[in-house]
Each structure stands twice: as structure tokens, then as C-alpha cells.
């Protein structure tokens, strides 16, 4: 049965306090305080079934002399009503002036059920409502629960939700409580507007915020659903964006939201007052601490004179300085930044004031909300512990680290007073989220063909902060599996230990005549040297072998028997040889043997004959990263420097060095410029270099060329003309990325124009090789065209290859789509300069997804 909620208890309290008819018989006069001055024992109770009499009497507190006056009776009445245990409470006079308390108890809830809820599970709603099974039924609490359920749905974007509470009466003063939910459709954000933004376009600011407009692909995401908390957070994101770009006076005045019943969605408008843009005019350091040299903090400042005033750089400088002061023994030092604006010159004079802060210690660190994550996983992100000096910079760093773990929806660290004036308690409030992922991903590219992957990963394994992932890949040209495990805190040090086991099979395709099979294992250690600088050291050991299609692996290539005239019935020419000769199986006098009748190139054949090769290598990667966004960067620098030394055991030895630098910078009207420089060098350290150890380049260096399309190449006209690779390469790219202003921002499309240049050269692999041991017969001709007797055994000396150091260059256009299906990119490039034997590929496509 449906009901409306009533404020009956409050009304009765008012009548009791101000009206005599409740307290006295009908027609009687007002009862004086003295007449009601009874003791607690003179109070009788009626109507109670579950609540004890003494419990009810305990709410009436006698005054001096053990007597109850009018005020004590009123207070007891209010207290009984506020317990929520009773539907009704009345106080009357009984015989002999006795006080009679008549109560009607609230029923007991037998069960709580939810109907109509399809988008939010019963378990989640049960945890949110205050009414509980086997608890006391309270109409006020039910009303509160109704509003809470509606709020939960609104947070998930369903503003048309309707929640109706119903009660079903049961025997013995029990009821069942049922919440019927009409969920309604999702309420999205139909438009996002910015008012007052002159320095940055609305298109650019939409990149800054988390709320997006609804579009045709919104069903694949939830960022278009209206969430007032997210909109409020967007205000701060906009403000922070302006502050780090020199707008020290910026204010995001308001975020106005209006529901449009016609569009059935919200219109969000951000009102911005930008102010002026400032540069740093000067930097000064001051200290009030005796014997502390403030200028020694200059090396820890990330603020530069002449640059735009950046609040984030100031905050990072304060953090670094305060931590350094603590290391020097000034545990209570506080760095306070200040700035004087020059409104005419539009500059800010930055001053870092280093003062002695209050001597406050951390009494306790209380963790709340981590139901799954172990306490030590959270505590190890703190550089302070109980008993240490309170350092706000270190606490802020811990909060940032906890957020970066990606284990929690929210993290907030606050303080409260401790047991004394010099003690504080840190309260760490967290809300956990799911950290496991199961994904089925697929993609297609012009290089790898169709590809599918199934993976299972967990970022917080067993609540211990461990990462584990298992993946299986199956594709047209690539297949394999991988197992990964990461312990982020090795032996309780901030050092990450990673273990990778993998098996990969790369099949022959239109770009390479051979396939490879690789089985490897690689442990690695990762160190964070600074927030923008990291180091990884690794050891890799893997076994690799070459595979060839059957039509390239035949060696019965002698056309003639020993007499040099009779055709060899076992002769099995390749298609290339047959096409070149024009007469399949016909006698030939060109003298071409196993290497030159259409087989794979000499280095490939030699590697095939050598069988499986073991590589054991030590290496490291140094990464410098100042990008503003790792997924969609618009500003910053990313530099990777890698070196690998093979020869720690194994069958090969070399030193391989690679550097790759990308610099992003915003230009004008939302156009982002990208400059990329890359290079690599392979040095022989002892044994001969294999072809497989060489660099292989194509569109990864200069777009417009096929995979393995540039660099040294086998020139045998009857062979597969495989790319041999090189020991040195360089590349340079200039790219402009620009949005399509006529399309909604949420579509995620932008265009690119670019120019590439680069080169790959200096092949140092095998060029000669005795083929006697390779053949199924001990007789074979020379590998070079000759007129010698085909029955003579020879040495493969005929690797003729192009090793020219030509500069390859191209220009092109691209389409970049940050789609819900994953990042996709389409490129069309036209080579301008190339080597004589290079292979081009003007169109290229690549991408993938998880679903």
C-alpha cells in the first residue's frame, strides 16, 4: 500500500508543549508545573511491545530533588519522538496525578526489495539506503531513502527517475518495504558553452574538461551524462588550465546548468573572467631561519624568468624545496610562495619565503574506505609516518601518488586535531573501484593485417598492489601469447620489478619472404628518478629462428645430373625461377643454384641453416617526459634513450643504441606542432652481425614507404629481394595537427599534414657463405650467374645488394580519430625522394579496439 509521509510526532510535540487538552482531561484547566512535579517512578507506560518500560522512562531526566518538572517532561517527549522507534507518543494524566506515556511503536522491517531497477543492482541500492531488514520502520527514514535512490540515478545521468516507496503489512507488527523505480532514459549534456574566453577557443577548452556533449557514439561512453560533481570539477580544471598558462587573475565565475525539456538534456555554460596573461619578471629567495641559505634552493626551482607564470611550476618548486629543507634537517620548514604583479608590464615577481613552521607531529594516519586494498599498500605511498614531523608537501605528494595508483575513484587527505596541540591526525578517505579488466580487442593495419587479442589483467592483485596480465594474440601474420607481472615495491623500496614471458610468431607476408619464431623472458627494474625522469634496466634472453614457406625452402635445385646434360628429376624450381626462365623444368645453362633460383636471400638462408639462435642482452631505457597529456599531448617533450648490449652469453654480440624525441607545442587556433627526431646505431662487438639484428625501417621512419621498404636490399633478380636492414638510421618529421572546427569536438576527429625525411644504411651482415652443408645434395653450382659446369660445388659469393645512403623524404596528410573503438589513424603520403630499389606504399591504416 502506498503512503504519504507525515510529521505527526513534531505536531504532537508542539501541541503538548503549548496546549493543555493533551495533558489534562477535557474541560480541565492548564496543569501547573507543580501539579506535574512527579518522580520517574510515577510515570506509567502504555502501548509498548518491544521497547522496555525502563528504557522509555530513562528519557525523562529528573531535576534537583529527583522531581520531574514541566521542562523535563517536554525534553523526554522530544527525545522519544527523535528515536524513530514510535509512530506516536502522547502524555496524559492518570489517576492521582500520575503521568501516563502512551506509545505506538513503529513496525519492524521484514525485508527490503527493489523493483524496476535494471541499471543499478540491488546490492548497490541496499548499501545506500538507511532502512535495513530487521530494523525499525521509520517514515522519515523511508523518505530520505527515496531521495537517496533518486540521487544515485541522477548521478548516473537519469534525471527522469521516479521512486515510489510501498509497504506491505505483515502479522506481528511487521512490514515489508518495497521501492518501485521508474528509471527513465539517460539525461545527457546537449551543449557546452564558454562565455568570456578570449585567449582560448571553446574548442580548445573542451579538451580540458571531462564533461562532453552527447553524440551518435555516446552509448559507448559515459562522459556525456550530466553529473553535477563532474561539472564542478570541470570548473577547477578550467581554472588550473588558465593558471598554468600565465593567467594569474583568472576566475571561473560560475557553471550554469539548465535542463532543456525539448532536447531532454542539459545545457552547460561556463562563465570565465580571464584577466591578463603574466610572465615571470624575477625570482627571489628569502629565509627567516637562522643559518639557512635561501639561495641554495635556486636549483630546485622550476620557475624561469621570462616564461609564462605557471602555478603548477610554482607548486612543484615549493614541494621540491620543502622536501629538500626537510632532508637538511629543517623538518618544520615551510616554503610559502608570493608574487607581486606589475599590471602595466604584465609580469609577476615570484618570491619563495622559507620560514620555520609550527612544530607539529603526526600522531596517527587513519585509513578509511579501503575494503580490499591492504593498509600497507596505501601507507607505503607516504614518505612520512606516525611520529614524524608534519610536512604538508609530503602529504600532498602522497595524495597525488594514491590517485595515480588508479585503485580508487577518489582520494582525500585531511587533518584533525590530535591528543595535544602539537599533534595532528591524518585522515585518508578513499572510495575503491574495480581494478580488473577483461578485454577482447581487434584491429587491422596494412602492416600486420587482421589481428585479435584476448587479455585478462588485474592492477591490484589480491589487494596487494601487484599487476598481472595474460594475453593471447591471433592474427593473419602475427600470433603468440604473453604473461606479465609487476611488483611495484621490491623489498619495500620504490623500485618496480617486472617479469615478462612471451612467445611470438611473425609469418611471411607481402613485405618479407620469411617468418620468425621468438620465445623469450625478460626481467626488468624501474626507477622513478624524478616526476619527469625515469630509468628502466632490463635483461632479455630469447631464442629465435627463421621459418620459410615450402616453395622457398626447396634445395633440389640442380637442373642436371652429374653429366651436366641429363635433366635432374628432383629439380623443383621456385615460381620466380620458372617465370624468369620462361620454360618450367627446361634445361638451362645459366648456372644458378640454390641461392639464386628464386629462394630467399643469402642471409635468410644462412640463418635458416644455423637453426635456433640464443640472444642474451642487458639494456636500459632513460625516459624524460613533460607531456601535458600522454594520450593526446598538445605541449611538452618526450625523449627515450635506449641501449642494449647483447653478448652476456648467447650466440650473438652487439651494442644497439636508439634515441627518439618528440616535442609538442601549441601554435595558433588549436593547431599543435610536432617535431620528431630519431636515430639508431648498431655496433659489432665480436661475432658477426645477423641480418635479424639489423634495423628494419619503413613507414615507422618515413611515411609513404612500405614496411621494410627502405635501406639495403638484395638485388638478385631471381630471388625474393629481401630487405637486409642497416646498422645506422636517422629520421626527422614535422607535423601539424589541427581539429575539424566544423565537426563537434566529441567526434574526436582531427587532421594532420606532415613532412618526413630519413635514411637507413650500412648493412654489415653476411655476404658470403659455403652452401655445401645447406644442400640435400653435395653438388651445386655457383650462386652467381656463370657458365661453369653445374655439377661443380661452389661457394655462395654472389650477394649483390644496394647499400646506398639515399635520403628518403615524403609529404602527406593524415586523419586521426580518437574513436570509442580505440585510436585510429589513416595516412596518405607521397615519396619525394627515394632509393632506386625502395618500395613505396602511399596509403597506410592502423588501429584497434577493446570491447
SSE map:
Blueprint: H1 8-18, E1 43-46, H2 53-57, H3 70-82, E2 86-93, E3 99-105, E4 108-115, H4 122-128, H5 139-155, E5 162-170, E6 174-182, E7 188-195, H6 202-208, H7 228-243, E8 251-260, E9 265-273, E10 279-287, H8 311-327, E11 333-342, E12 347-356, E13 361-368, H9 375-379, H10 392-404, E14 408-417, E15 423-432, E16 436-445, E17 449-461, E18 466-475, E19 478-487, E20 495-506, E21 515-530, E22 533-547, H11 575-581, H12 602-610, E23 613-625, E24 636-646, E25 654-666, E26 672-684, E27 713-714, E28 728-739, E29 749-761, E30 769-770, E31 795-796, E32 801-802, E33 808-819, E34 822-833, E35 843-850
Parallel strand pairs: 1-3, 4-6, 7-9, 10-12, 13-15
Antiparallel strand pairs: 2-3, 5-6, 8-9, 11-12, 14-15, 16-17, 16-35, 17-18, 18-19, 19-20, 20-21, 21-22, 22-23, 23-24, 24-25, 25-26, 26-28, 27-32, 28-29, 29-33, 30-31, 33-34, 34-35
Tell me about this structure.
The structure is a single chain. The protein is mostly beta strands and 851 residues long. The protein is 15% helix and 39% strand. The protein is built from 12 helices and 35 strands. Strands 16-17-18-19-20-21-22-23-24-25-26-28-29-33-34-35 form a 16-stranded antiparallel β-barrel. A 3-stranded mixed sheet has the order 1-3-2. Strand 18 (466-475) and strand 19 (478-487) form a beta hairpin. Helix 1 (8-18) runs antiparallel to helix 3 (70-82). The longest helix has 17 residues, at 139-155. The model is unreliable at 1-36, 574-597 and 771-797 (pLDDT under 50).
Amino acid at each position: 500500500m502506498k503512503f504519504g509521509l507525515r510529521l505527526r510526532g513534531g505536531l504532537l510535540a508542539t501541541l503538548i508543549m503549548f496546549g493543555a487538552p493533551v495533558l489534562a482531561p477535557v474541560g480541565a484547566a492548564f496543569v501547573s508545573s507543580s501539579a506535574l512535579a512527579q518522580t520517574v517512578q510515577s510515570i506509567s507506560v502504555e502501548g509498548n511491545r518491544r521497547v522496555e518500560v525502563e528504557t522509555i522512562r530513562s528519557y525523562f531526566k529528573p531535576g534537583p530533588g529527583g522531581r520531574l518538572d514541566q521542562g523535563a517532561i517536554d525534553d523526554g517527549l522530544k527525545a522519544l519522538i527523535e528515536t524513530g522507534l514510535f509512530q506516536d507518543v502522547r502524555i496524559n494524566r492518570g489517576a492521582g496525578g500520575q503521568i501516563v506515556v502512551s506509545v505506538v511503536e513503529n513496525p519492524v522491517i521484514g525485508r527490503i526489495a527493489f523493483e524496476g531497477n535494471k541499471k543499478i543492482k540491488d546490492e548497490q541500492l541496499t548499501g545506500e539506503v538507511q532502512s535495513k531488514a530487521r530494523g525499525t520502520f521509520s517514515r522519515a527514514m523511508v523518505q530520505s531513502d527515496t531521495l537517496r535512490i533518486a540521487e544515485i540515478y541522477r548521478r548516473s545521468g537519469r534525471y527522469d527517475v521516479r521512486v515510489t516507496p510501498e509497504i506491505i503489512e505483515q502479522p506481528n507488527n511487521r512490514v515489508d518495504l518495497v521501492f518501485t523505480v521508474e528509471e527513465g532514459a539517460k539525461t545527457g549534456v546537449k551543449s557546452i558553452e564558454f562565455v568570456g574566453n578570449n585567449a582560448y577557443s571553446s574548442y580548445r577548452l573542451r579538451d580540458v574538461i571531462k564533461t562532453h556533449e552527447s553524440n551518435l557514439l555516446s552509448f559507448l561512453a559515459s562522459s556525456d551524462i550530466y553529473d553535477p560533481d563532474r561539472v564542478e570539477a570541470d570548473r577547477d580544471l578550467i581554472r588550473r588550465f588558465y593558471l598554468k598558462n600565465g593567467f594569474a587573475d583568472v576566475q571561473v565565475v560560475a557553471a550554469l546548468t539548465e535542463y532543456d525539456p525539448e532536447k531532454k538534456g542539459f545545457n552547460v555554460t561556463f562563465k570565465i573572467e580571464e584577466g591578463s596573461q603574466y610572465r615571470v619578471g624575477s625570482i627571489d629567495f628569502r629565509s627567516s631561519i637562522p643559518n639557512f641559505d635561501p639561495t641554495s634552493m635556486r636549483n630546485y626551482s622550476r620557475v624561469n624568468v621570462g616564461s609564462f607564470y605557471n602555478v603548477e611550476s610554482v607548486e612543484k618548486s615549493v614541494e621540491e624545496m620543502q622536501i629538500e629543507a626537510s632532508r637538511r634537517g629543517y623538518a618544520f620548514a615551510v616554503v610559502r610562495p608570493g608574487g607581486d604583479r606589475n599590471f602595466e608590464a604584465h609580469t609577476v615577481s615570484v618570491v619563495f619565503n622559507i620560514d620555520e613552521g609550527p612544530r607539529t607531529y603526526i600522531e596517527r594516519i587513519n585509513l578509511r574506505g579501503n575494503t580490499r586494498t591492504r593498509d600497507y599498500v596505501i601507507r607505503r605511498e607516504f614518505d612520512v609516518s606516525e611520529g614524524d614531523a608534519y610536512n604538508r608537501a609530503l602529504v600532498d605528494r602522497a595524495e597525488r601518488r594514491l590517485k595515480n595508483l588508479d585503485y580508487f575513484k577518489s582520494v582525500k587527505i585531511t587533518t584533525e586535531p590530535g591528543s595535544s596541540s602539537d599533534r595532528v591526525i591524518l585522515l585518508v578517505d578513499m572510495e575503491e573501484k574495480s581494478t580488473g579488466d577483461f578485454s577482447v580487442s581487434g584491429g587491422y593495419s596494412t602492416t600486420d593485417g587482421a589481428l585479435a587479442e584476448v587479455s585478462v589483467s588485474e592492477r591490484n592483485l589480491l589487494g596487494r598492489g601487484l599487476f598481472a596480465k595474460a594475453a593471447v594474440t591471433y592474427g593473419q601474420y602475427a600470433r603468440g601469447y604473453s604473461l606479465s607481472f609487476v611488483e611495484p615495491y621490491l623489498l619495500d623500496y620504490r623500485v618496480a620489478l617486472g617479469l615478462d614471458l612471451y612467445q611470438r610468431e611473425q609469418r611471411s607476408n607481402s613485405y618479407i619472404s620469411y617468418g620468425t619464431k621468438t620465445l623469450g623472458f625478460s626481467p626488468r627494474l624501474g626507477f622513478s628518478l624524478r616526476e619527469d625522469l625515469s630509468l628502466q634496466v632490463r635483461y632479455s634472453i630469447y631464442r629465435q629462428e627463421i621459418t620459410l614457406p615450402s616453395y622457398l625452402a626447396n634445395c633440389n635445385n640442380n637442373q642436371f645430373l652429374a653429366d651436366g646434360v641429363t635433366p635432374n628429376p628432383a629439380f623443383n624450381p621456385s615460381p620466380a625461377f620458372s617465370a624468369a626462365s620462361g620454360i618450367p623444368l627446361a634445361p638451362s645453362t645459366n648456372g644458378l643454384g640454390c641461392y639464386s633460383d628464386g629462394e630467399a636471400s643469402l642471409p635468410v638462408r644462412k640463418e635458416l641453416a644455423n637453426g635456433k639462435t640464443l640472444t642474451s642482452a642487458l639494456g636500459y631505457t632513460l625516459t624524460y617526459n613533460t607531456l601535458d597529456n600522454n594520450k593526446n599531448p598538445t605541449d611538452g617533450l618526450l625523449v627515450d634513450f635506449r641501449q642494449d648490449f647483447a653478448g652476456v652469453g648467447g650466440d650473438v654480440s652487439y651494442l644497439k643504441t636508439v634515441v627518439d624525441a618528440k616535442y609538442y607545442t601549441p601554435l595558433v587556433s588549436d593547431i599543435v606542432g610536432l617535431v620528431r627526431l630519431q636515430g639508431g646505431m648498431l655496433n659489432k662487438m665480436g661475432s658477426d652481425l645477423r641480418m635479424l639484428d639489423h634495423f628494419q625501417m619503413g613507414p615507422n621512419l618515413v611515411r609513404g614507404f612500405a614496411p621494410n621498404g627502405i635501406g639495403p636490399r638484395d638485388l638478385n633478380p631471381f630471388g625474393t629481394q629481401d630487405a637486409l636492414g642497416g646498422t645506422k638510421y636517422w629520421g626527422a618529421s614535422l607535423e601539424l595537427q589541427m581539429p575539424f572546427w566544423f565537426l563537434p569536438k566529441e567526434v574526436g576527429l582531427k587532421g594532420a599534414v606532415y613532412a618526413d625525411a630519413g635514411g637507413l644504411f650500412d648493412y654489415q651482415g653476411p655476404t658470403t657463405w659455403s652452401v655445401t652443408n645447406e644442400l640435400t645434395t653435395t653438388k651445386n653450382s655457383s650462386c652467381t650467374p656463370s657458365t661453369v659446369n653445374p655439377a661443380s660445388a661452389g661457394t655462395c659469393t654472389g650477394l649483390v645488394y644496394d647499400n646506398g645512403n639515399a635520403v628518403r623524404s615524403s609529404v602527406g596528410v593524415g586523419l586521426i580519430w580518437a574513436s570509442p573503438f580505440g585510436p585510429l589513424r589513416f595516412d596518405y603520403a607521397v615519396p619525394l625522394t627515394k632509393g632506386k630499389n625502395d618500395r613505396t606504399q602511399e596509403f597506410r591504416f592502423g588501429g584497434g579496439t577493446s570491447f
